[in-house]
Amino acid sequence: MSCDFLSLARPGVQKLSPYVPGKPVEELAREFGLRPQDIVKLASNENPLGPSPAVREAIAGAFAELTRYPDGNGFALKQALAAKLGVDTACITLGNGSNDILELVTRAFVGPEHEVVFSDHAFAVYPIVTQAVGAKAVSVPAKDWGHDLDAMAAAITPATRIVFIANPNNPTGTWIERAALEAFLDRVPENVIVVLDEAYTEYVETDDVPNGVDYLPRYPNLLVSRTFSKAYGLAALRVGYGLSSPVIADALNRVRQPFNVNSLALAAALAALQDEAYLIESRRINRQGMQQLEDGCAALGLSWIPSRGNFLAIDLGREAAPVFQALLREGVIVRPVANYGMPNHLRVTIGLPEENQRFLDALKQVLSRG
Ligand SMILES: *Cc1c(COP(=O)(O)O)cnc(C)c1O
Question: Which of 150, 186, 197, 229 has the highest CB neighbour number within 10 Å of its CB?
Fold first, then answer.
C-alpha cells in the first residue's frame, strides 16, 4: 500500500489550488490537429513583437560562457537598473521572474501565525505564495473590479505581515491613482510590508497611475516588484526585480537561490533595458490594439473593464467558459478567468493588429451561434 503523501503535506499546501497558466500553442495544436502557425495566442499577456534583435544578439553573446555559473549578484544588470531608476544597487533584488520576488518576500517574512492581505480578482500568485508558507490569506472584496484600498487597510490586523497590491491589476486591468495610493501608504502600519506589483508599469502612458519608485524614500516598508516578462518581451527567460529599502532587500537575498537568475536572462535583460525603441514600439502596438479591441467589442455590443495593461477583461454577459472552448476550436486562445471570481469575463491580451482581428472575427462567429 502506498502512502498518501498529500495528507502529509502542510495544511496550506493541501488546500492550495495550483496556478493555471494560459494554454500553450503546441498543446492546442495537438488536441485539435491544428497547425501551430494558424493559432493565435492572446492568453498570457506576452509581448506580441517577439524579442528585439539587440536581445537576440546579447543572448548569442552569452553562449560562450554557458559552462560557468551566472553572476549570482547580477552586478551589470543591477548597475544598469540603479542608473535608470535612480536607486542604490543595495535596494535591488533580482528574481527568476517577478514571481520569485513575490515568493521571496513571503518566505522571508511570513509564517503560519501571520496573515497576508490582497484583493478579490487580483493576481493568482498572491494566495499561492501565502498558502505555501501556511499563512492565512485574507482576500478583500473589490470595488468596481478594482482594489478597495480603504477596505484593505481596514483588513490589516496585528497578525498582518504583507499587503499585495497590483497596479495595474491583472486580470482586471484596473489601476490605483496617486492620491489613493498615498493615503493607503500613510495608513498602513510601518511593520507591514506593502508589495506594489508593477508588472505592467511600462505600458502605462497616462499620468494617473503612480510610479512606485517615487515612494521608496518615504516608505521603508514598500517593496516594488517589476518584470522583464511583459513590455520588455522576455517572458520565457524569467527575470524580474524588487526595489525596496536595503534591509528588506537583504532579507530577500538571504532566502533566494544563489543563482536564481540565469546568465542568458541577465544578458537579455541588460540589452532590453537599453533598447528604448523596442519599448516605444511595444507601447504603440498596445495603444493601437487596445483601441481596436475596444472598438470591436463595442460593435458587438459587449462591455469591458477599462484597462491600463496590455490586456482587456471583456464582459460577455453570460458564462464565458463555453465561449472560451468555442474560440479554441477556431484556433484562438484567450484566458477564462472564472478562477478569479469572474465567470462572465474573458481576458484577452493585446496582440498584433491581425491577431486582434482574428480574435474579434472568431468571437463574432462564436457569439452569433448563440
Ligand atoms: C505577469 C505578471 C507578473 C509577472 O510574472 P513574471 O514572474 O515576472 O513573469 C507579476 N504580477 C502580475 C500582476 C502579472 O500579471
Answer: 197
